[in-house]
Design goal:
This protein has about 140 residues and is α+β, with helices and mostly antiparallel strands. It has one domain: Fructose-1,6-Bisphosphatase, Chain A, domain 1, CATH 3.30.540. Helices cover about 45% and strands about 15% of the residues. The protein contains 2 helices and 4 strands, in the order ααββββ. Strands 1-2-3-4 form a 4-stranded antiparallel beta sheet. The longest helix has about 50 residues.
Length: about 140
C-alpha cells in the first residue's frame, strides 16, 4: 500500500525555512522603504532649489519660510511662491522649509525634516546643489 503526501516533519521543516527567510527579508524591506523616502525628500529639495533660483531671477531675492513641524500651511506657501507640488497631506513623510542667509539676496538652504522619526532625520540642500548632513536610514 503506497500513500501520497508530505510527512509532518517535511511540513515543519518547510515552515521553519520560510520563517527564517521572512525574518531576514523584513529588515531589508524596512530599510528599502526608508531609502525610498529619503530619495523622495532629495527630489523635493531639488525642486525647491530650482524654484528658489527662478524666484530669485524674477524678484532678485530668495524666498524664506519658517516652519513648525506639521505646519502644512507653510508648505502650501512654499508651493504657491515657488510653484511647486510638495506633499501637504496629513500622512506625508516630510516637512520642508527654505532659509536664507544674512540678506535675502545672498544664499539659501532648503531642509526636509522626516515626520515620525526620533533620530537625526533631516536632509538639507545648499544653494549650489550639494546635500549637507545627508541622512540615510
Amino acid at each position: 500500500m503506497k500513500t501520497q503526501g508530505f510527512t509532518l516533519i517535511e511540513v515543519i521543516v518547510t515552515v521553519v525555512i520560510v520563517g527564517i527567510l521572512a525574518a531576514m527579508a523584513l529588515p531589508m524591506f524596512s530599510r528599502a522603504m526608508e531609502t525610498t523616502k529619503a530619495r523622495e525628500a532629495k527630489a523635493a529639495l531639488q525642486q525647491i532649489r530650482t524654484g528658489e533660483r527662478i524666484y530669485r531671477v524674477e524678484l532678485n531675492t530668495y524666498f524664506y519660510s519658517t516652519l513648525a513641524l506639521g505646519d502644512k500651511e507653510k508648505i502650501e506657501e512654499l508651493n504657491d511662491k515657488l510653484r511647486l507640488y510638495l506633499d501637504v497631506r496629513d500622512n506625508r513623510n516630510w516637512d520642508y522649509r527654505a532659509e536664507v542667509g544674512e540678506t535675502p539676496e545672498s544664499t539659501f538652504t532648503a531642509t526636509a525634516t522626516r515626520i515620525g522619526k526620533t533620530a537625526d532625520n533631516t536632509i538639507t540642500i545648499a544653494q549650489d546643489g550639494t546635500f549637507v548632513g545627508d541622512w540615510s536610514p
